[in-house]
Specification:
7 strands, mainly beta, Immunoglobulin-like
Length: 130
């Protein structure tokens, strides 16, 4: 029995690679529910305010953070290396995406996700048509 060989084209069509070259870390997160909404607390050691990017697109909250370049320093011994952080969350309709705010303090990012205001009952006045 003979094996058939299929000639390969010089240019082979492949799907685009959407992965990033750099490895990322998944930061530790705590989520708290409060009366006014949710608070997402993210530990981002080595990251300052300028190194954080928060985005909401298609009901997905994306948090990307890059540690400061000097955070690794010229250490004599290094047991770990700081890498970029990446985390995503699916948002529900109960979150008011226009009012999301964030604050950073001592390497801890807090993202406030306020609830959508409850719709109040409305009385409709009936006018007399002439």
């Amino acid at each position: 029995m003979k094996e058939k060989t299929v000639p390969m084209k010089a240019e082979q069509q492949t799907a685009p690679d959407t992965r990033e070259e750099a490895r990322t870390l998944i930061p530790a997160v705590d989520i708290f529910e409060m009366k006014e909404g949710l608070a997402v607390v993210v530990d981002l050691p080595g990251v300052d305010k300028e190194g954080v990017a928060i985005d909401v697109h298609d009901d997905v909250l994306t948090i990307k953070a890059t540690p400061e370049a000097g955070a690794n320093g010229d250490a004599l011994l290094r047991e770990f290396e700081l890498r970029p952080y990446f985390r995503q969350f699916q948002l529900s309709d109960a979150v008011d995406q226009e009012k999301i705010r964030a604050e950073m303090k001592y390497g801890v990012l807090t993202v406030h996700l306020p609830k959508v205001a409850a719709k109040q009952p409305k009385k409709i006045k009936v006018d007399v048509a002439s």
